[in-house]
Amino acid sequence: MRNLIFSAALATLSLFGLSAQAETIEAGKQYVELSSPVPVSEPGKIEVVELFWYGCPHCYQFEPTLNPWIAKLPKDVHFVRIPAMFGGVWNVHGQLFITLEAMGVEKSVHSAVFDAIHVQKLKLSTPEEMADFLETQGIDRAKFLSTFNSFAVKGQMERAKKLAVAYQITGVPTLIVNGKYRFDVRSSGGPEQTLDVAEQLIAKERAAN
User: Fold this and answer.
1) Which is nearest to 80 in space by CA: 177, 205, 186?
2) Are the beta carbons of 36 and 166 closer than 8 angstroms?
3) What's the chain's Rg over C-alpha atoms?
4) Cβ neighbours of residue 42 under 8 Å, at least 6 residues apart?
5) pLDDT tens digits along 131-143
C-alpha cells in the first residue's frame, strides 16, 4: 500500500513537472515584440541586453540571480549591459559604468559599485566621489578621472541613450533579446521567471537561425 501511495505521488509530481515545462510564453504577456528590431552588437550571436541603473534597488536585487546565469551562457549568446540614462544622477552613474568599461575594469568592480551605493550608502554622484571609492578598489584615480571626461566615453553615452530610446524602455531592470524582444522582472513574474523568459526567447532565435 505504501509503495502504491509513493508511486501515485511520483506520478502526480511528474505530471506537474510536464505541465510546468509545457507552459510557454506569449507576446503581449511576458514580453513585448519590438515593432522595429534593433541591430545587435555582434552579428552571428544571440544578444541579451540588460538595461540597468546602479542606483536602482530592483537592479541590485536582480544581480544575485542574473550573474550566475550570465556565467553559464553558451558561446552563441552575447550578454551586454547598458546603463539607462533618464537624466540627473542616472546619467552620472551611466557615465561611471561606461568609464569602467572603457578602462577594462568593469567586471572586476561592478558588484563593488553596487554594494557601495546600496550597502555603504555612498551616493557616488560626482566624479571625485567615484574616484575616491574606486581608489580603494585598486583603480588609478587620475586615470579614472581623465577617462571619465574623455570624448570616447561621451560618445558611448550618446550611443547608450539612443539604444534605450530604440528599445522603448520605461524602467529598469529591462532585458532585450536579440534586439527584438523586451521584458522585465514585473512582466515576467519574478527574477527567476525573467531568466526563463530569456531562455525561451534565446531558444526561439536559435531555432530561427
Assistant:
1) 177
2) yes
3) 20
4) 78
5) 999 999 999 999 9
The pTM of the full predicted model, rounded to 2 decimals, is 0.88
CA–CA separation, 181 vs 168, rounded Å? Answer: 11
Separation of alpha carbons 77 and 79, rounded Å? 6
Residue 203 has pLDDT above 50, yes or no: yes
CA 156/CA 158 separation, integer angstroms: 5
Identity of the residue numbered 48 = V
SS3 of 78, please? strand
Name the amino acid, one letter, at 191: P
Written as one letter, the residue type at 16 is F
**Residue with grid cell 571609492, as numbered in its chain:** 133
Return the H-helix or E-strand segment holding 186: helix 185-188
| Model pLDDT for residues 7-64, shown as the tens digit of each residue | 444 444 433 443 344 368 999 999 999 999 999 999 999 999 999 999 999 999 999 9
Task: Specify the 3-state DSSP secondary structure of 31.
Answer: strand
118 residue type, one letter? H
Give me the sign of the Cα torsion angle 85, 120, 141, 127. Answer: positive
d(CA 117, CA 120): 6
